[in-house]
Amino acid sequence: MLQVVSRRRTLFALFSFIAIALVSGTGTLVVRASGRVLQPDLSSISTTTPIKHVVVIYQENDSFDHYFATYPVAKNPPGEPAFTAAADTPSINGLNDVLLAPNNPNSVQPFRLDRTQAVTCDQDHRYSDEQAAYNSGLMDKFPEVLGVANTVTVGLPPNTTKVPCDYGHGKGLVMGYYDGNTVTALWNYAQRFSMSDNTYETGFGPSTPGNINLISGQTHGFTPDGTAVTVNDTIIGDPQPAGDICSNRDTSTQLPASTDKNIGDLLNARGVTWGWFQGGFRETNGISVVTGQSTTNTCQIGHANVGGVFSADYIAHHESFQYYRSTQNLLHLAPTSTAMIGRTDQANHQYDLSDFWKAVDAHNMPAVSFLKAPAYQDGHPAYSDPLDEQHFLINTLNRLQRTAEWKTTAAFLVWDDSDGWYDHQMGPIVNQSNDPAVDRLASGNNCGNNPSDIAGGYQDRCSYGPRVPLLVVSTFAKRNFVDHSTTDQSSILRFIEDNFGTGRIGDGSLDAKAGSLLNLFNLRNNDGEGKRLFLDPQTGRPVHE
């Protein structure tokens, strides 16, 4: 009898190993007798480049000029981390003397924010208002239209207080920018790797449209709600994904899921492992930002930024894949095992950020990973800031660069929207929209008159929107290189599609128009250890290991 039971267990284990290998998609898995994944066979992953792993680190609400206005020249005042650029640093399209004080066409001149001013007010970044600030391309109405002077709430209930966050600039705060003494890590990554100075939001507007464009290039096809989704079925605001157990903000805009496709569907069809990993998605204990007490309520667990502003770690309308029926994990279910991270089970490719590192530590890193920081580290003004953001970026990239998979990895750093912060460069209008209810780019009521047939002819997708930073950190990235090619958020979508041979989204997705990111890479020269850069999370400056 014992012999029969033992044989059954052996067969069950064998079948389990076979099942895991079959669902892996991107290669044969090496496993121990315990069933623990040791390492995928990277050589069997079918890609069009030597890049076998794509990691997209998707941050919040910063324009290109807000972070790189004077790159590579920093003020270097005493007491702030110094930055000195390499002699061969290329020039960028930033704020030069023509656009710095006193020559800027806006009513408030651009000004530098220092490290003591990291926590700022959240600016206006609505779809219509951002267009209006552009003023038919004159780029001169930012303080009047997008500027916000406000307060932030510091502390936990019941002991909270409101403090100003505009540092005396009022609505003129929108013209502020940081330099390499505050966003020091980003400037150092730009020195060692590649960056773009010509990348744009795929469309105007706040976080949700940016999140949707990253994974599908298509903000059309959703249920109108009169505010966040227009009568033309297009998202222009921040509706909450209906059914997400943590969709507890703006409850009047609970958006039913779309049945359209996203990159997750395309990767599944190709058998490529992937996942969205977000801070706070499945936390089990911490401090409640609602009561100020210890809690096990995932939706309330949060942290404070450097200014003492508390926020819940998980924000539902930042979770791109919860807006699609095929890729939802509304109950925030855990993966059934570490071996199944990146593969289809009850988690449905939606995970807590901690699951990413469990997979990495088990040498089971998905081929495509989207990483979303807990809110206090995602860079969003008011509840986050560039200093907390820097800790997340450095800790993530330092750890990634120590893995065996780093030699075949490309990490993209990109932001979901501009937050309305001033940026002087208007992008090309590649998709017009003529909806007098919401379009304001030209003549006060339109963004051109002819939505493109190639983009489905769908209204309320005025594209491209504001310019945002984009950096590539990889052994394949060109060193100290600035790409001037026109690209947008859906260019990352296109890179994934092309690299893993998934084909296009279709139905008017702007992936069909997206510019290529390949110019950021030197795919024939991977020098491995020579292109690792470890930084200090506190200062953003290089450290030696």
Describe the structure.
- With 545 residues, this protein is an alpha/beta fold.
- It folds into 2 domains: 1-44, no CATH class; 45-531, Alkaline Phosphatase, subunit A (3-Layer(aba) Sandwich).
- 19% of the residues lie in helices and 14% in strands.
- The protein is built from 10 helices and 22 strands.
- The strands form 7 sheets. The chain has an 8-stranded mixed beta sheet, sandwiched between helices. Strands 14-13-15-16 form a 4-stranded antiparallel beta sheet, with no helix packed on it. A two-stranded antiparallel ribbon has the order 1-2.
- Helix 6 (207-216) packs parallel to helix 10 and helix 7 runs parallel beside helix 10.
- The longest helix has 23 residues, at 2-24.
- Mean pLDDT is 91; it is low at 1-43.
Summarize the structure.
The protein is α/β, with parallel strands linked by helices and 545 residues long. 19% of the residues lie in helices and 14% in strands.
Q: Helices and strands in order, then pairings?
A:
Layout: H1 2-24, E1 29-31, E2 37-40, E3 53-59, H2 64-68, E4 111-112, H3 127-134, H4 142-146, E5 151-154, E6 161-164, E7 176-177, H5 184-192, E8 194-196, E9 199-200, H6 207-216, E10 240-241, E11 254-255, H7 263-270, E12 274-278, E13 286-288, E14 294-295, E15 301-304, E16 310-312, E17 350-352, H8 353-361, E18 368-372, H9 386-401, E19 409-415, E20 470-474, E21 481-483, E22 487-488, H10 489-500
Parallel strand pairs: 3-18, 3-19, 4-7, 8-21, 9-22, 10-11, 12-17, 12-18
Antiparallel strand pairs: 1-2, 5-6, 8-20, 13-14, 13-15, 15-16, 19-20
Helix pairs in contact: 6-10, 7-10
